[in-house]
């Protein structure tokens, strides 16, 4: 093991430990009441703030990402328990390749670890995994791991867990346009194409629209995430950094969603 790798794993361990301590502190906060009959069907999450979380603790950025995986575990379990139909998480964007070699390597490493350590539990819960993004652009070990996870869980009928990986929203729209163009070139009438045809050409084919979009760390941006699917989503932006985001924070976000008056462009009453 190189000196650098060694330092990173110590950072990761410290990150996990600190994340656990923060989660325990959050236990003391008051519970919010949720209307169980109005749980959003599709929640999308931009898991932001891992780097700042690590920096605040003088840890390497990889420790923030490792702590972020712990939050992810907790949020997946809670979404499953609440009966959320689909959870879509932004794990790695097409732009994230521009980060340092160390950080990209750490994220890819976490991804591999995640699939080997979680797949049994996810399968047991009936979770169905789908990758949104360009799988062919991933390094071979990650590509094999995600393909195996999708294959193993494809028949599952529980929570749909969609992991945006090597994903870009504009690329997704372009890909859909190309798929339809190919159908037209093969002889279909362009004017016969419907919105359903377009939606069926997106990575999210068959999933409900996003109801609730959560972004952590206070940033008010979409960052090229699901630009089509969030057309009528309710946004909840919290200052909490992703590694500190826990089940109670999720409940608060859902409670905020339940307070919203969704009109879908119409008027009420
Ligand atoms: C944004 O925080 C976070 C990411 C780019 C990566 C998110 C990934 C994980 C939580 C773990 C990997 C996922 C799986 C499925 C194993 P940032 O690094 O931009 O934070 P900053 O804005 O504070 O720098």
Write a compact overview of the structure shown.
By secondary structure, the chain is of the alpha/beta class. Helices cover about 45% and strands about 15% of the residues.
Written description of the protein model:
Helix 4 (101-124) runs parallel beside helix 5. Helix 5 (140-153) links the parallel strand 3 (128-132) and strand 4 (160-167). The protein has a domain at 38-167 and 210-258: 3-Layer(aba) Sandwich (Undecaprenyl pyrophosphate synthetase). It contains eight helices and six strands, in the order H-E-H-H-E-H-E-H-E-H-H-E-E-H. Helix content is 47%, strand content 13%. It has helices at residues 3-26, 50-56, 61-82, 101-124, 140-153, 169-185, 195-200, 247-259; strands at residues 42-46, 86-93, 128-132, 160-167, 212-215, 234-237. The protein has a six-stranded parallel β-sheet, with helices on both faces. The model is unreliable at 1-8 and 22-29 (pLDDT under 50). The protein is of the alpha/beta class. Farnesyl diphosphate is lined by residues 47-52, 65, 68-69, 72, 91, 96, 107, 110-111, 114, 163, 217.
């Amino acid at each position: 093991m190189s000196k650098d790798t060694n330092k990173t794993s110590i950072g990761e361990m410290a990150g996990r430990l600190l994340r656990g301590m923060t989660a325990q502190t959050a236990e003391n906060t008051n519970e919010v009441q949720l209307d169980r009959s109005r749980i959003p069907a599709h929640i999308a999450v931009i898991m932001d703030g891992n780097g700042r979380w690590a920096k605040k603790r003088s840890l390497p950025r990889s420790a923030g990402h490792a702590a972020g995986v712990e939050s992810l575990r907790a949020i997946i379990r809670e979404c499953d328990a609440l009966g959320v139909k689909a959870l879509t998480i932004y794990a790695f964007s097409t732009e994230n390749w521009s980060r340092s070699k160390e950080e990209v390597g750490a994220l890819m490493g976490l991804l591999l670890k995640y699939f080997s350590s979680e797949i049994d539990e996810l399968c047991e819960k009936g979770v169905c995994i789908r990758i949104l993004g360009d799988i062919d652009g991933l390094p071979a070990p990650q590509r094999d791991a995600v393909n195996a996870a999708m294959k193993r869980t494809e028949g599952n009928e529980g929570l749909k867990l969609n992991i945006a990986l090597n994903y870009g929203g504009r690329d997704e729209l372009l890909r859909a346009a190309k798929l339809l163009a190919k159908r037209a070139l093969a002889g279909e009438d362009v004017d016969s194409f419907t919105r359903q045809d377009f939606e069926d050409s997106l990575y999210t084919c068959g999933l409900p629209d996003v109801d609730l979009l959560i972004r952590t760390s206070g940033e008010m941006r979409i960052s090229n995430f699901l630009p089509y699917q969030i057309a009528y989503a309710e946004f909840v932006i919290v200052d909490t950094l992703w590694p500190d985001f826990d089940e109670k924070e999720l409940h608060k976000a859902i409670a905020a969603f339940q307070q919203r008056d969704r009109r879908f462009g119409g008027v009420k009453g």
